[in-house]
Amino acid sequence: MFDVKHTTKGMMGSANLRTRELTERFNMVADSNYSAQAIDYKIKNRKLKAVDFAIICDICGFEMWYRDRATDALLMALPIEKQLKFIMAAKKMTQEELRQIVTERTGKNISRSSISAKITGENVTVMELQVMADILGCDLKVYQRGTKNDGIEAIF
User: Fold this and answer.
1) What is the count of structural domains for the chain?
2) Integer Cα distance of 47 and 153 in angstroms
3) What is the pLDDT of residues 80-112, one digit of tens each?
4) pTM flag (> 0.85)
């Protein structure tokens, strides 16, 4: 699993963006009104939601993909709900089975409605997405846009 804070900072450095510039672009794309301090807090404390992280990837010229460890196949990471449901179906895992394993792994009691919301991309952090991907035998990888099929290893 990659570290959200270091990966985000690495992407920003690669794109030569400071937090203020990233925030301005983020707010335009996401139609939101975050302050630079709020974005910086989310990055530093690893509180970025998966959709926010995907927007930051895009702004910085990166893409987030799932890599199936068994087949080494790459699957686009977003839209989250379609890819997680697809991977769950391929692995023959139900939402309830995933919920139970996430609860066991994290020590947090995850409700049925909460796991459903996370699978559909509502209120899921990058860390939670990484845990679910790991349970499904996948890694979440970040590639510089356009390089994943060129034999180039994941950046993060």
Assistant:
1) 2
2) 26
3) 667 788 888 888 999 999 999 999 998 989 999
4) no
